[in-house]
Design brief:
Length: 414
């Protein structure tokens, strides 16, 4: 038998999954949200929030919805936020999604269509859900559990709070964003409109997995200026900017590249090179969990720029390094309320939460970096994100919602 909570989450997920909300990074510079379909889902959420008799709903022109459920306590506790994004990725088609519910998974491979099959052998997590409800694609699109599972879980908890006054809670802030997959989701975020002192993104994957650490990131722009000369009489005179840039790229340590690292190891990555023999621009991404090591890599690139100049007399190398975002664990350590509440909620529910590292950034890390609001990430129950083999497990989705509800109750007693 499916619990009322699981039923509500499933209904919501199926309703949200069929809305075409694929975002487009090529449009996001001009338009935010980048695609109209994201408004369709945001508007649907607003009407559902109103049905729950939630009155405090703000819709930002950039496609961000902020809703508040007022506290039902007679004492003050910090406002607590939950955040999820309505857009889907475009790695495979993210529109035209036709989710298929498998009510009692039989433990075998799942044929998605004539061409594609979800293999049990490649998805060890499937074994935990034999006899349970899973949701798969028709093999043509992604499923959109990233992050519509998160949206459905937050909405289901909102309904729970609004319909059961015996659940004691402080002020709860629900935040739905757009264009997360383009990386620009927080570019226009109305920080002045939020009140939460700690927040969680519901945008992870496997059951019981949580994330509080992401990379520190820097982008380094390197410019190489050569000396042009008629090629027929260039000896001893011409300095080729492309040669200098190639030398620079080849000198980056291969053992510290994305393709040679995982876990806690950071990297250098030459990302783009454009130019001619006279002027060449190079972009290098630097990533590390440890800020001091990230800065050590910046210093190494500065030294390499000098060495390149020394090797190519009259050539010039200039370098501009910028920190882009920081490991959100710095804020989480400073304000332990978010991680402490998360672990306490997990303990009360008997869930063995385990932490994974995010080898990238999240909207939560932007929230942490820019507002000093700790914002760890919680599992949604989705797997194989951004893929036609994406699937979601309803028991894990329910557990995510139960964890959210428990964090809220922990928050009522702070
Ligand atoms: Zn996501």
């Amino acid at each position: 038998m499916r619990s009322p909570l699981a039923t509500d989450i499933l209904d919501r997920f199926l309703r949200y999954a069929v809305v075409d909300t694929m975002s487009d990074e090529n449009l996001v510079a001009d338009k935010h949200p980048s695609t109209e379909g994201q408004w369709d889902l945001l508007n649907l959420l607003v009407s559902e929030l109103k049905e729950l008799a939630i009155e405090d709903i703000q819709v930002d022109e950039h496609g961000i919805v902020i809703a508040r459920i007022p506290s039902n306590l007679d004492y003050e506790v910090p406002t607590l936020g939950f955040m999820a994004h309505v857009d889907t990725a475009d790695d495979v088609m993210g529109n035209g999604v036709k989710p298929r519910v498998i009510d009692a998974y039989d433990g075998n491979d799942v044929k998605l269509n004539e061409e594609y099959t979800l293999l049990r052998s490649e998805n060890e997590e499937l074994a935990s859900y034999v006899g349970e409800t899973i949701i798969v694609t028709d093999g043509n699109t992604l499923l959109g559990s990233d992050d519509k599972a998160g949206v459905a879980e937050i909405m289901a908890v909102a309904k729970l709070l609004c319909s059961d006054p015996t659940i004691k809670h402080g002020e709860i802030e629900l935040i739905f964003t757009s264009d997360e997959e383009t990386g620009a989701g927080m570019d226009n975020f109305p920080y002045d409109k939020i009140r939460c002192e700690y927040c969680y993104t519901i945008d992870g994957g496997k059951r019981f997995e949580i994330e509080s650490e992401c990379f520190n990131a820097a982008t380094v722009k390197v410019h190489f200026s050569g000396v042009s000369y008629h090629l027929g009489s260039a000896r001893g005179r011409l300095v080729n900017a492309l040669t200098m840039a190639s030398y620079f790229v080849n000198s980056l340590p291969q053992a510290e590249s994305p393709e040679a690292t995982d876990g806690r190891y950071g990297y250098y990555c030459a990302l783009a090179m454009n130019g001619t023999s006279v002027e060449t621009d190079l972009t290098v991404y630097l990533r590390d969990f440890d800020l001091a090591i990230l800065d050590r890599r910046i210093e190494a690139l500065k030294a390499l720029a000098q060495a390149t100049e020394a090797l190519y007399p009259n050539g010039k190398v200039s370098l501009d390094a910028k920190h882009i975002y920081y490991n959100m664990v710095l804020v989480a350590k400073d304000k332990p309320i978010a991680m402490n509440s998360l672990y306490e909620a997990g303990r009360r529910l008997g869930m063995e939460l385990h932490e994974e590292l995010i080898r990238g950034g999240t909207d939560g890390s932007r929230m942490a970096n820019e507002q000093k609001i700790p914002c760890p990430n919680i599992f949604t129950g989705g797997h194989n994100l951004h893929s036609r083999f994406e699937w979601a497990a309803l028991p894990a989705m329910e557990d995510s919602a139960r964890l959210i509800a428990q964090i809220i109750q922990v928050g009522a007693n702070l």
